[in-house]
Write a structure and sequence with these properties.
Layout (H helix, E strand, L loop, with lengths): L2 E11 L7 E6 L20 E4 L9 H5 L5 E3 L4 E3 L9 H5 L5 E4 L1 E4 H9 L2 H7 L2 E5 L7 H14 L3 E5 L5 H7 L5 E5 L5 H8 L4 H12 L4 E7 L7 H13 L5 E6 L5 H7 L13 H12 L4 E4 L3
Parallel strand pairs: 2-8, 8-9, 9-10, 10-11, 11-12, 12-13
Antiparallel strand pairs: 1-2, 1-7, 3-6, 4-5
Bound molecules: iron/sulfur cluster (2 copies).
Amino acid sequence: MKNGIVFDIRRYAIHDGPGIRTTVFFKGCPLRCWWCHNPEGQNSEPELVYRKNRCTSCGECVRSCPREAITLGAQQVFLNRENCVPCSDCSLTCPSEALSIAGKRLNVKEIIEEIEKDRAFYDESGGGVTFSGGEPFLQPDFLNALLDECKERDIHATVDTCGFAQYEIIDRIRDKVDLFLYDIKTMDDRMHRKYTGASNKQILRNLKKLAENGSSIVISFPVIPGINDDDKNLARTAKFIGSLPNTRQVNLLPYHRAGIEKYKSLGKPYKLNKIRPPANQKIKSIKEKMEAHGIRVGIGGG
Ligand code: SF4
Ligand code: SF4
């Protein structure tokens, strides 16, 4: 039985494709977008999460750790993450649920059982399952096996991808995918490298091939003020989308700051502290500017 690492399975999702869906979040991503609101999905391996606001400084975790990775402070604990395995002994001991492990190895059967729980909602709403992340294509065999199960059970399957993968991997699986949600962050390769850690060339090439091969695709465009919302980039993005066969829909995903606390709980720096979410008026104006190029533009996922 194939297995993989996921960090969440969310039921009743309404922004991850059509209808009511169950979203399975794969752990591991090849990009490091500065605005990522799921930083617990970036590393491929399970990692320790510490929520300082829940901690009562009881010291139980310090005593339970076999690796001496935790020390007690005045009103919190300090983690030496380099020493952490993570074994989860501390999270099982903590009486306040201040410690937990992001990421769990599950097999296909376990995930399909979760997905099947809401079949009635999928049938009624035209929904299904969305494989998201992180990046699903980083665990291609696991994704492939899950898609096979969905096909067999006639469950609509969406894959939410950043597109940064070898095309051969995408090509092997694409026929089993009913809908791709495909990110374009910026057409400017220099900016893309700076803010995601990788070039956009392979991502755009893959998108073009996927569209030419007839896959059903909706583009996701995160609107990050000062990074990708200038007129030049909006026009380039809209023209590129307009040039793709079978692909005319883009959804704008306005920048938000909901993930900031997660960075603290993972001991990671958040690099976009100075940026604020765009005003509704600004999003409306971006929508109109992109629509002027003949593409359909929505706001939010779904
Ligand atoms: S997960 Fe294990 S190794 Fe890591 S801090 Fe907790 S008890 Fe120690
Ligand atoms: S066991 Fe939990 S509440 Fe107690 S010190 Fe450790 S993290 Fe804090």
